[in-house]
Amino acid sequence: MAEASRVLQTALVSNFNSFQRTHFSQLNPVSFRRNPVHCSVSTSENTKTTVTQTIPWGCEMDSSENASALQKWLSQSGLPPQKMAIEKVNVGERGLVALKNIRKGEKLLFVPPTLVISAESEWSIAEAGKVLKQNSVPDWPFLATYLISEASIMESSRWSNYISALPRQPYSLLYWTREELDRYLEASQIRERAIERITNVVGTYNDLRLRIFSKYPDLFPEEVFNLDTFKWSFGILFSRLVRLPSMGDKFALVPWADMMNHSCEVETFLDYDKSSQGVVFTTDRPYQPGEQVFISYGKKSNGELLLSYGFVPKEGTNPGDSVELSVSLSKSDECYKQKLEALRKHGLQASQCYPIRVTGWPLELMAYAYLAVSPPSMSGQFEEMAAAASNKINTNKELRYPDIEEEALQFILDSCESSISKYNKFLQQSGSLDLDVTSPKQLNRRLFLKQLAVDLCTSERRILFRAQYILRRRLRDIRSGELKGLKLFTGLRNFFK
Ligand SMILES: C[S@@+](CC[C@H](N)C(=O)[O-])C[C@H]1O[C@@H](n2cnc3c(N)ncnc32)[C@H](O)[C@@H]1O
């Protein structure tokens, strides 16, 4: 979970461009009974789809029966006795709860490598795995295909108990329709990230279909390997895949460990422990019997947590929270072309996003603001401003241009205020938003999504309010300092007169 989703952005579609076209000999027909999923959605316009087929495997997010079966199977398959059990919980629906007193600094879990799913895991349908390997499919799409392949053969897969305990519909923005994203997340930049991610998943599936699946329909029938099943498997990877630093940053699904929910108040994460030869984590606080035990999915903003995991922490509880502020060059700026050229040279666009935290904003944003407000007389500095805005210069030295500092701060303040007004609009309207649904199930879903959006927008706006307060105070100080300077100057001039 921690860190894994960030890597996907680069690992997905781009790697497919380097696929080699290979010819294969005829493969043996598959003898497993498969469970088809009929896909009725258009692949090219996925971000606009409203229909998602139900996946025939997995369970409801809160199913404790499937979780008990998983727990039993894991113990029989080599998971050592645990100090925790899967239970229904208040935070995260199902989670691991302490059965005994757990000390701070204690190692827990010890999931052996035989119970870990990675790109090296054995395929029940060996030929399918061989084809993907021959085509050098990167880890994420490889694992997504593996998961579907194992899920589709049900009890014939050694992972069937694990897959049966996975949610049938993971809570992530992958499952929001374009209409829902537009309606509820209009004010937040996370909407763009979700659209980009959905596009990546669709692109990845289409690439696999074109290059591999269509050539081996016996191994990868479309009733099983389609956009709905890929959305599910990517949803599972986004919300459960971990990167194990001590195993050379290997990506893995770790059954049992992935029943642990996230808390912003803990900093401990999963890793492979060479001495005990298992996946463990070390507690950074004590737990009493009955208490839910948490790990950290990484220092993520509330928006990122919603994007990959489908939840928003309670307002003010996430110290790693941030909001993306969008800033743009003014098209009416007489140096627009020159400034844009300087930005492009450093891989930036006319519009950029920078993260704002309660503690402040990055130096890169200030550099961008200097560039945006600088007059033609400063064209000699455009280049260094753009470089600093892109963070390509490996220095933490703050650029300072005292003559235009006030304008630069005002520029950031204006951008914050324009963003705040979008949040205000959404939050004011949210009470009266037409949910526009016909069935009670749909109504529940819409209410749930709306609440998530309200929680996210409230927390993002809160950070912007804080930035607005700091910026206004700084500007007031600069202006009153200037005024004092002016008064002193006039006083001295009068004196000498
Ligand atoms: C790795 S799984 C954890 C196990 C999961 N609760 C289950 O029952 O399968 C991650 C998912 O758990 C839920 N989750 C984790 N931490 C949470 C939290 N702090 N608040 C709400 N939901 C959480 C989210 O649905 C997330 O997508």
UniProtKB/TrEMBL annotation:
BP term (GO), one: methylation
Keywords recorded for this protein, A-Z: Methyltransferase, S-adenosyl-L-methionine, Transferase
Binding residue positions for substrate: R240, D258, Y272, Y297, Y309
Annotated binding of S-adenosyl-L-methionine, by residue: R240, N261, H262
Protein name: SET domain-containing protein
Keyword Transmembrane annotated: no
Gene3D superfamilies: Rubisco LSMT, substrate-binding domain, set domain protein methyltransferase, domain 1
Signal peptide (from-to): none
Gene Ontology CC annotations of this record: chloroplast
Gene Ontology MF terms: [ribulose-bisphosphate carboxylase]-lysine N-methyltransferase activity; protein-lysine N-methyltransferase activity
Source organism (scientific name): Cannabis sativa
Pfam families: Rubis-subs-bind, SET
Domain SET: 82-298
